[in-house]
Amino acid sequence: MSTSRATWPRPSRLSSRAPHRPAAPLADEEVSLRAWRDADVTQLVAACRDPEIPRWTHVPAPYGPADAYAYLAGVDRVELSFAIVQTGDEARILGSVGLRDTGEHRADLGYWIAPWARRRGVAVRAVRLVCAWALGEGGFARVQILAATGNLPSQRVAERAGFTREALLRSHLETKAGRSDAVVFGLLAEDVASTT
Length: 196
What we know:
The protein has a single domain (26-195), classed as 3-Layer(aba) Sandwich (Aminopeptidase), CATH 3.40.630.30. The chain is built from six helices and eight strands, in the order ββαααβββαβαββα. With 196 residues, the chain is α+β, with helices and mostly antiparallel strands.
């Protein structure tokens, strides 16, 4: 994820490279986003063993240290992923937020929050931070979230972060329980500009 590309975002239709990292730290008074570190493995494993995370994501279950190390070794190649931490305490992992370049100046956004950090507004803050960067300095025109219809907490995060509910895609996602419909939420640069 820390690959810096002068020509990014590429004009190609599909992209297989992660976006470049922001020049300045992404933080507000409560939440900071930083690169993942090998020292995060224990907390990453503890968080991803919570059944709600693999239920709605592609995180494997059961999840162990080998999965965490494999994730840390390969994530930079496909997405720009951040560890969400408390501002002033970079050691405690609160969750994860990541952008995947889908081409044509669009990005998919994904996130999960550790069970010990839920219901505190952490996800909304992290999503707002990464989207402000992505739709500004990051050069994206659109960021979208695809949430399974049953994943109501994720849908609430999207709405509270300023995304617009746009569509329902039938049988779009593969979940641990099988095929699922997905709700599409979109955020454009002008949406962010109108709220600042």
